[in-house]
Amino acid sequence: MDLDVDFECPECGSPVKATVAEVARQATKRCRKGHDIKLIDRGGGARKAQRAMDDLDRALKRFGK
To answer: What is the pTM of this model?
Structure first.
């Protein structure tokens, strides 16, 4: 289960999409104009949200069996 996050490139303002998992991993994304954007999970909120979504996904799969 992935949740998308939309934001703007801090260099040029181009729209950029990432997933909560990418933010939790602190991945680097690239905007359409080629600027690299290092995602930072300040306070660990994205990591906690991703863990909660993974737990929910597992619980729903077990429930469906």
So the answer is: 0.78
